[in-house]
Task: inverse folding
């Protein structure tokens, strides 16, 4: 805990916190997944996230409030029952994971235990959606561009067929916007877009 | 991915992102603003490490 508290790098600190929380919940048979901005930060180093770590449960079973408080209490956390202040940051436990992706969760061997990360295919499609609906949102667009750049540059594995499938689903319905964004990033990186194989 | 490989890849990932968007894209506000700004002395989180320090 002292190591995490003393760490002044926000991304590395978030990774350590996620790793430690994953270890403690795993001891009780509860698998956690880093989601949203926090997952994007760990995958892209995009300087996007704020001072909180967003986690969801992979296991759908309810997690009694007292058990959550006991687990987080072992870290000296304050607050609850869904958000705690711990080691100079915040940990938010948001509920069961919602995901349409068929690709596996990504795994990072953290400082204390394995961290599971939401699928970058769905993170990308989500960000593209948020960047245009309900109205244009430039921060989400920058975030989506960074995700695409890290994948196109070879620093992160991404299943582009899955991106296409998710973007085409009625829950998202943004294939055209997704293709346009990835094409733009590919042009900036002077490479080809995997979503435009015939161009 | 191992912890060591993740640490080693940080600069590369940041540099790729910097080619297509501004270096720091942290949102200026969110529903968590109050608690974040209270803990981080008016900011929404710790300052990000510069790319050349990764």
Result:
């Amino acid at each position: 805990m002292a190591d995490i508290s003393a760490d002044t790098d926000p991304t590395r600190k978030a990774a350590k916190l996620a790793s430690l929380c994953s270890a403690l919940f795993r001891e009780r048979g509860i698998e956690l997944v880093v989601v949203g901005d926090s997952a994007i930060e760990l995958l892209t180093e995009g300087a996007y996230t704020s001072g909180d770590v967003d986690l969801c449960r992979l296991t759908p079973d309810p997690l009694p409030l007292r058990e959550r408080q006991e687990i987080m209490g072992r870290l000296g956390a304050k607050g609850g029952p869904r958000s705690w202040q711990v080691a100079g940051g915040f940990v938010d436990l948001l509920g069961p994971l919602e995901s349409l992706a068929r690709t596996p969760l990504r795994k990072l061997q953290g400082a204390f235990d394995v961290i599971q990360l939401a699928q970058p295919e769905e993170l990308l499609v989500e960000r593209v959606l948020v960047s245009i609906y309900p109205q244009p949102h430039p921060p989400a667009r920058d975030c989506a561009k960074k995700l695409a750049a890290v994948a196109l540059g070879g620093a992160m594995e991404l299943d582009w067929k899955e991106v296409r499938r998710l973007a085409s689903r009625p829950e998202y319905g943004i294939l055209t916007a997704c293709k346009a964004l990835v094409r733009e990033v590919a042009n900036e990186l002077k490479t080809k877009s995997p979503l435009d194989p015939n161009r | 991915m191992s912890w060591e490989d993740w640490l080693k890849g940080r600069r590369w990932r940041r540099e790729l992102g910097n080619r297509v968007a501004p270096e720091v894209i942290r949102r200026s506000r969110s529903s968590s603003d109050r608690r974040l700004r209270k803990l981080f002395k008016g900011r929404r989180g710790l300052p990000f490490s510069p790319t050349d320090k990764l």
Remarks:
- The radius of gyration of chain B is 14 Å.
- The CA atoms of residues 5 and 12 of chain B lie 11 Å apart.
- DSSP finds two helices and no strands in chain B.
